[in-house]
Design goal:
CATH architecture of the largest domain: 2-Layer Sandwich
Shape: globular
Radius of gyration: 22 Å
CATH topology of the largest domain: Creatine Kinase, Chain A, domain 2
Oligomer: single chain
Strand content: 15-25%
Distance between the termini: 59 Å
Length: 462
């Protein structure tokens, strides 16, 4: 697969994209005037996936849509260096929404932005541009990736270092006094108002733990939706005087929060993962895509699981995947192939179970897409299915089967990432090098901390 330059858009994509953008821009300006919108919030993310925002008046929007909003990129983590600091926020009019939590007397809107250099070329430090570039690369070989994440999170009484849960419920539980159920209901209404369709929502296995599953859409739209979901969940919780967190493992002794992500490729409107002539319905494209994910799983884990805390979830021994394997209906595997419903070939998909909800979704979806496409490009063969519970096997038995482990901690994950040509190419040198520096610093700081476990275990006895 030939890789286009970072800032390029292939000729067959660019004109169509520009026509759509003009139509969308006209719609946004008309809507703002008709609805009396008083404020527009421009949204983007830093490299770690933290939400950023700047507000402008409607009078400025048409100019900003045409020319972008200039700001100092050196003030944003992972963006520009001081000597090359200024960048442009270019609103993507297709993402415009009215903010449902704004004061009705002063309507507000929001638009996600791409970040560009002053000359209009794609800025290498923008995660959204990274995903757009990888999506465009997939289109050049005829594919579009759709995804649907299952986003887990906890509600706590506050943000103190000693978490206090709001309930003692478990999987699918419904309790009449469950304040969190009302929080989740309000969040679903908010997401619906923001044009983000939800497929399922329920209480998860841990106390005060919940899950919201988003409906399938293209990767770029879904990354925007994940960012909006995280903001909406936290906003509703804050309004009710409680705290929501997407930290992967906030509690000892119970499962952590994951973001299992369902993936499929479409070509010419057809599900490229489905083959009606195959006994299991999986096409060769799907098999090679899975093989690519497995081949590159260890080196992409630093991106899908970017916190020191992420590895407390992966190594906990609940449903988080620890081993590089695949299976049709085995939740100890890293890649699961859900059973396709009869007559619904478009539901043929795979589920990648490692990511957690603290990842940057733009970067996570980028490396998942790139790893799968590399498998297709290299015609990788799918290894044998893991039909047994891998947690029940000894490490020697796992090695004998050729089953590798995911990295055990952030340092090991960064070592794998640093040696990866695929991750460097996918993220670009700018983000790749900054991410490694930032996360090495996080790991080193963590290593210097004396934890409560050490004090409780060693102080009385040594």
């Amino acid at each position: 697969m030939e890789t286009p330059d970072t800032g390029d858009i292939t000729p067959d994509i660019k004109p169509d994209r520009e026509r759509r953008r003009q139509d969308q821009q006209d719609y946004v300006l008309r809507t703002i005037e008709e609805r009396g919108v008083r404020l527009i919030r421009l949204w983007f993310t830093d490299v770690l996936g933290r939400h950023k925002s700047v507000a402008i008046s409607p009078a400025e929007l048409e100019t900003v849509l045409d020319e972008g909003l200039q700001f100092d990129g050196s003030a944003i983590d992972g963006f520009s260096r001081i000597q090359e600091s200024d960048v442009l926020a270019r609103p993507d009019p297709s993402t415009f929404e009215l903010l449902p939590w704004a004061d009705p007397a002063e309507p507000s809107g929001t638009i996600f932005c791409d970040i560009t250099n002053l000359d209009g070329t794609s800025f290498e430090g923008d995660p959204r541009q990274v995903l757009r570039r990888n999506v465009d690369r997939a289109r050049t070989v005829g594919f579009e990736m759709f995804c649907a994440p299952e986003v887990e999170f906890f509600y706590f009484a506050d943000s103190s270092p000693v978490p206090t849960t709001l309930d003692r419920a478990s999987y699918f539980d419904l309790t009449t006094t469950d304040v969190a159920s009302d929080l989740r209901k309000q969040t679903l209404h908010m997401l619906e108002a923001l044009s983000i369709p939800v497929e399922y929502s329920f209480h998860e296995d841990g106390p005060s733990q919940h899950e919201i599953d988003l409906q399938y859409t293209d990767a770029l739209s879904m990354a925007d939706s994940v960012m909006t979901l995280r903001l909406a969940v936290k906003k509703i919780a804050m309004d009710r005087g409680v705290y929501a967190t997407f930290m992967p493992k906030p509690l000892n002794g119970v499962q952590g929060s994951g973001m299992h992500t369902h993936l499929s490729l479409f070509r010419d409107g057809e599900n490229a993962f489905h083959d009606p002539t195959a006994a299991d319905g999986l096409s060769d494209t799907a098999r090679s895509f899975i093989a690519g994910l497995l081949r590159h799983a260890r080196e992409i884990t630093a991106v899908t699981n970017q916190l020191v805390n992420s590895y407390k979830r992966i190594n906990e021994g609940y449903e988080a995947p620890r081993y590089v394997s695949w299976a049709r209906n085995n939740r100890s595997a890293l890649v699961r192939v859900p059973i396709t419903k009869p007559g619904k070939v478009d539901s043929t998909r795979i589920e990648y179970r490692a990511p957690d909800p603290a990842c940057n979704p733009y970067l996570a979806f980028s490396v998942l897409l790139a790893a799968g496409l590399r498998g297709i490009e290299d015609h990788l063969e799918l290894p044998a299915e893991a039909t047994m519970n891998l947690y029940d096997l000894s490490r020697d038995e796992q090695r004998g089967m050729g089953v590798a482990s995911l990295p055990h901690n952030l340092e090991e994950a960064l070592d794998e990432m640093e040696a990866s040509e695929l991750v460097r190419e996918t993220l670009g040198d700018h983000i790749f090098e900054w991410f490694l520096r930032n996360k090495r610093s996080e790991w080193n700081e963590y290593q210097r901390q004396v934890t409560p476990f050490e004090l409780e275990t060693y102080l009385p006895n040594w």
